[in-house]
Specification:
single chain; 132 residues; alpha+beta; Ribosomal Protein S8, Chain: A, domain 1; 3 helices
């Protein structure tokens, strides 16, 4: 089955697994999804991830993170740019999520990075998603 928006599929799988209180979720792998997981790990929204090779495209296993009282670390995750409506922002137009408490993930010419990193580097790009 072909997915028209693999990033939205990734975010939906993570969102559904968090609501079901799963400790891990398996998602069909791709380079973009692996980079998204790397940014989420760097920002401490997930515990870990690993790519499991198989005969097809591989599986990206994401280990979700919960607080000590078993509450979600990720309380919300939203896709901003879609295949039908791309959202591009300049270096001055990078949005802050919840006044800086959340994170925007931006696809720049130097790869995926957070809004904070893009501001420091003076780069804009496609606004992929927001996590809080």
């Amino acid at each position: 089955m072909s997915v028209s928006d693999p990033v939205a599929d990734f975010l939906t799988c993570v969102r559904n697994a968090i609501r079901a209180k799963h400790r891990k979720v398996d998602i069909p792998a791709s380079k973009l999804k692996t980079e998204l997981a790397r940014v989420l790990l760097r920002e401490r929204y997930i515990n870990n991830y690993k790519v499991i090779e198989d005969t097809r495209q591989g599986v990206l296993r994401v280990y979700l993170k919960y607080a000590a009282d078993d509450s979600n670390v990720i309380s919300g995750i939203r896709r901003m740019s879609s295949p039908g409506r791309r959202v591009y922002v300049g270096k001055d137009g990078l949005p802050k999520v919840l006044g800086g408490l959340g994170t925007s993930i931006v696809s720049t010419s130097r790869g995926l990075m957070t809004d904070r990193e893009a501001r420091e580097a003076g780069l804009g790009g496609e606004l992929i998603c927001q996590v809080w």
